[in-house]
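Ticket #4471: structure export looks truncated?
Reporter: QA, pipeline team
Priority: medium

Steps to reproduce: submit the single chain below to the structure queue and open the exported record.
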Amino acid sequence: AIKVLGARGLVEVIPGKGSFVTSLNTEAISLYMRLLVRARNASLLQFHEIRSSLEVAAAGFAAVRATMAELEKLRQMADEIEESLAADDQERFIAADVAFHAMLSDASHNPLFQAVLDPIMGTLADIRRLTYHIDGSPQHGQIYHRRILECIEQSDIEGAREAMRQHMDFVAEDIERSEEDMPIASDVASM
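Actual output as written to the record:
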């Protein structure tokens, strides 16, 4: 495990002195979280439960704190999601979906939401890859994105929270419908 962390630049091993944590960035924290969750045999659904509580709150704060520039970026990302769906471009869809959620976190104007949610975005991409091929899943997700955006544009705190809650409930159902609730990030095991 120390060799893996060393290869990823997360720790520095000094012979005779020990192993020391190097600088942590979002990517390093994301990898650490994925490894930690995998080591505890947590599932994507369990990980999603944590994500849900944070994103519902962030959506409510974004409804009253988002700037005009952030609203425009959210609109652009929602448009990008629709264009990726029309092109049936899975990776473009996933990138736009992750960007929408990351921008929503930024629009909360709470740096702690950003610090906690940013590392989660890698696992969000894992979830979308798993659920993308479920009939209607990406399209339904986009309906929720538009509802969330509409509530934020109207400064509707409770509406934004409820729209995000419904979106997160739908994603949880998709995870359950996918190839069973699998352990998180199976690709991490090969690291």
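Status: closed, not a bug. The export was complete when the record was re-opened. Leaving a note from the reviewer for reference: The mean pLDDT is 85.
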